[in-house]
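User: Fold both of these, please.

Assistant: Here is the first one.
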Amino acid sequence: MAPLRLDGLPTEIKQRIIIIGSHETAMNLRQVSRSWKRVASEPFVYKAIMENRSDVSWSTIPLSRNAPWFSWVRYALADSRAAELATLTDEYEKTRTVTLDTMSPPSLALSSFFNEKTYNWIPQLMASQHPTLYNTFKALKSPPDGVEWRNEDSSLLHAYSVAFCYTLKVLSHTTEKDSIISDKLPLLLSRTLGQPIQIWVNPVLVSSPPMKERIRAMTVISTFRAELRKQGLREAFDTGRKTETVADRLLPTTQSIPFQKLLSLPLPFSPDTASQIVDCHVSNMATASFFEDGEWLGSYFDYDPQRKTEISVLRMKFSTSTCVGSPDLLKLKAVGRIHMAEVSLDGVFSRSRCQFRATMVQQHWQQSTWDFSLLPCGLAGLRIHSQGSWLWMYKADWVGS
């Protein structure tokens, strides 16, 4: 009986051999022969490799069945990096020492994850609710010490990626630990940018680059969400029973925001991932149909770290019109109610900047001016001439009933 050649194995056996291995094995087997190349180029093979790696199913991979095989390879590689990061984080948590003033620094292996290339795969997995990465909390908490950025634009891109990941993390989880670490975000971003991020002080009439405004707005949302959660936990502890907080009922979560429809994510490990992440929501969200479709809710709050955060809920409906001769601009008008009072909003939105300044009128007499930034999690607006008045607006169908 002639020996069975590896190349002569049935296709089903070849697929099983590949699936129990890694994506590196699959890539190597593509070089063996034409038949192995054909089998190892099937997208479902790499999906099965990722599912075989963990007991937790990653059901929100942002790829269709018809996506090219190399797209699946990129996500399989990112999945393996997340597993490696989780292992290093677990080892660090077991060996670290904590004092009243300091905490032992991360290991060299863990620190190596935090460099200029770190965030060319983490944002994609965070936006796709990767189960391993979401549970690797320490990884997103560690600051990128010792990183030297090429220029200011590079540091801004990295800071936005950090804020993007932090916000998705805070909007996803509802534990006290997640709330507490969000307090570290302004400090982490300040170190990354080399300048302070002051989220509750309004630099009146001092213009900032659109990127910095988006970073600050993203930071405010995550900090505000976590602060409300902490207040709810304190109330639950004081009363001795579970308390459904405002944050639980009225604010969107990572699971409720349809990121797969809203974000055009670049493939992991793309050389220009950082710049693409910044604008990955623009094509689907900076449109007239997005603003006009459905009702919007808004959480109006005055953020002050020294006192309890209070919010008022706003309901609005947008209408749009084009600016003749300016395809980049879109006129926005909205009418609605805040509690029992009528309110209107009027401004001009810039698609390229993802920002607009709007005038809000309440009950035909109280008028205020706001600077809004369009983010993947909605609109975040800072009231001009205030000391920390913010408005976070999001689609009504992003929250529960």
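And the second sequence with its predicted structure:
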Amino acid sequence: MSNWGNRYLTQQQISYAARDAWVSAAIVERLQMANQKLFRAEALMQMNFMKNERSMSVVDERARLRKAAKVELKEMQERQKIDEGEVSEADEKRIGALLLPNE
């Protein structure tokens, strides 16, 4: 199973996504040929599933916030290990260097 949450996708993932998009477009095209009134672009955009879609800027911002939260959680866990004495002195120095802001 591939990780679609990675910032950079593999060539295989890009090819899969491109095929998926192409097939979706082909299906919509066939549906439009069969019933233009129901499946024209304007009608599709008025359907509930399209009205509730998030914008790409919102999706991107949510992804950045999730990543920042994961980093913060990891830092908190590392601090807790230090406080509880679960790390060696060498690891504590390494972790401390990661946690301190750049000067």
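DSSP finds six helices and no strands in the chain.
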